[in-house]
Design brief:
alpha+beta; Jelly Rolls; Arc Repressor Mutant, subunit A; 4-stranded antiparallel sheet; 9 helices; 12 strands; cNMP-bd_dom
Length: 227
């Protein structure tokens, strides 16, 4: 991967110095995982930051015998930064939802790079604040109807990770249980709402190709209260 491609794929690096990009690419390790494989395990010490080149992962927290999905990440995003910044064990698992390609950069070298490149440091803070705002939005939506909350989840995934497709913006066909977890509604409610959206033609689920197309993103945004 060339530095220009790296910068274009990962918003974190779009303000980094060219020298920083070349250095990071020279030390990055490549990884491939099949669907359902654990990428990171809870309580493991943070020794690297991971970048999603392709595919989808879910971040989950274990609660007794149950696992709750906290976030879904796609191409161009990253994870593992919190454990290296506060030098503590990871508090969540990361599981591959689909086959994924990742790049990893060791914790020590990533921290060194942050200190050397002020633009990268600032961009890192911006993206962490963005994640905090997204968490706050979920909190603000807690009393909204389930359909509004689920529409927000779908629109957010489309905006962050969607790719143009035949029928509209395409994302991964995320299992309903994971959608329910990140939306904070029940899986039965999620199933009913998704079936209704599919019947209305606002979304199109292609199980064979494991894609979910946001056919009518404008209507979904209206339902989510974003316009």
């Amino acid at each position: 991967m060339q530095p220009e491609e790296f910068s274009e794929l990962f918003p974190l690096f779009n303000a980094a110095n060219p020298e920083t990009l070349e250095w990071l690419l020279s030390i990055a390790a490549e990884h491939e995982y099949p669907a359902d494989r654990a990428v990171l395990m809870e309580d493991a010490w943070g020794n690297a930051v991971f970048f999603v080149v392709s595919g989808w992962v879910k971040v989950r927290r274990l609660s007794g015998d149950d696992a709750v999905t906290l976030a879904i990440l796609g191409r161009g995003d990253f994870f593992g930064e919190m454990a290296i910044l506060d030098e503590s064990p990871r508090s969540t698992d990361v599981i591959a939802l689909s086959p994924v390609e990742l790049l990893s950069i060791s914790a020590q070298r990533f921290i060194q790079t942050l200190f050397k490149d002020a633009q990268l440091h600032h961009r890192m803070l911006q993206l962490m604040v963005k994640r905090l705002r997204q968490t706050n939005l979920r909190f603000q939506l807690r009393h909204q109807p389930p359909a509004v909350k689920l529409a927000n989840t779908l629109v957010g995934l489309g905006e962050n990770y969607g790719q143009p497709g035949e029928y509209g913006t395409e994302i991964y066909n995320i299992p309903f249980q994971d959608l329910a977890d990140v939306t904070d509604i029940g899986v039965e409610e999620t199933t009913k709402i998704m079936e209704k959206l599919n019947e209305k033609g606002w979304i199109k689920i292609d199980s064979a190709n494991e894609t979910l197309a946001l056919v009518n993103q404008k209507q979904l945004s209206h339902l989510a209260g974003r316009v």
